[in-house]
Amino acid sequence: MSLAVRACLTRDHFTLDVDMDLPLDGVTSLFGRSGCGKTTLLRIIAGLERVRGARVRFGDRLWQEGRHFVPLHHRRIGLVFQEHSLLPHLSVRDNLLYGYKRTPKSQRRLHLPEVADMLGIPELLERPIDRLSGGQRQRVSLGRALLTSPQLLLLDEPLSALDAQTKREIMPFLSRLAKEAGVPIVMVTHAPDEVERLADRVVFMHEGRIERSETLREALGRADSPLFADEGPASVLEGALGPMADEGLRPFGTNGTRLWVACPDDRPSGGTGRLRILARDVSLALDDPQRISIQNHLRVTIERIDPLRDHRSLVASRTADGQLLLAEITTRAAAQLNLAPGQPVYALIKSVALMG
C-alpha cells in the first residue's frame, strides 16, 4: 500500500510543488525547517486543504482528482495537532470514546482497554480534562484519534507545544504507539531527535519542495544529512534491552554489539529499542584498551571515511550485526592511525541515549 500525492499550490509568495509516492508502513516523517510546507502537505493529505488540480491516492482509494473529492470524515484519518482539541466538559473516558461511538462497529479494530494501556492512561479515565498535565492531554488526544480505528494517522508536530521535561515523558508513548497500533503514521516535525527516535522513513522538505525521500538508515548514512545540522552526525542502533545488572546498568543489543546503558529498572526488558549515539562521543582505537573509564567498547569494521569541516573526519563503520556507527575524529588522528576502509578497529563510546 502507498500514499501518492501530487499538488501545486501558490499562496502569499510561497509555492508548494510536490509529487511523491510513499510506502505506507511504520512511521514516515516530513522533516524540514518551519515554513517549508510540511503542514500544508499534511492538510492536503487529510482533505483539510482542497487544492485545484491535486491528486491524492491512498492505496486503491482515490481521495482527490479533478472534481472527485473525498472529505476528511470519509477518509478514516486520525489527526493530532500541536495543541490538543479535547472537549473540556467531558471526562478522559468520554473524550476517548467520542469518536469510537461514532465509528461503525464493523470498522472498530482498536478498543478502549488496549489503547489506554498502550498510552499508560488507565488511571486517568475518570479525570476531568482540566486536571491533566500537558503530556497527559496529548496522550489522550492520541488515544482519541486511535479509537476511531483510522487507516492513517497524521501527527502535526505533536510535541512542539510541550516543555522539554513533558516531551521526554511522552516520547516513549509515541514510540509504543508506532510499534503497537498497527496504523501507518505520517508525522510532521523539525526536530532531528524525534525523527531518529520514531521514523522509519524521512521525507526531506525545503522551500515547498521534496528534496529527498529515504529510509532512516539511509538518511543517517550520509555525512550531509539535514538531520545532522544542529547537533552533528549521530547513529541510531537497534537492539533489545536486558534486565538490570551491577551498578545500575542494563545491557542493550546482542553479544557482538552489547552496550551498557543507564535506564530505570521499571522499563520492561525485551522488545526492540533504539540508542542514539552522537558521533562526537565515539573515539577509535586500533587495540582494545583495558585500563580506561569508558565502559562501552565495540569491535567494528571501517566502511568509509568522509571529510567534515574544521579539519575533522567522519568515520563510518559497521558493527558485528551490520549496523552503522559513526565516529567524528580529527583528520590528524585518522592519518596518524592510518585508518582505511576494511580495517577492524575498536569504537569507544563515551555516551549513549536510550530512545525507546
UniProtKB/TrEMBL annotation:
Domain Mop: 291-356
The protein, known as: Molybdenum ABC transporter ATP-binding protein
Pfam families per the UniProt record, alphabetical: ABC_tran, TOBE
Record keyword Transport present: yes
Record flagged with keyword Lipid biosynthesis: no
A single GO cellular-component term on record: membrane
PROSITE patterns per UniProt: ABC_TRANSPORTER_1, ABC_TRANSPORTER_2, MOP
Chain ranges of the ABC transporter domain: 5-232
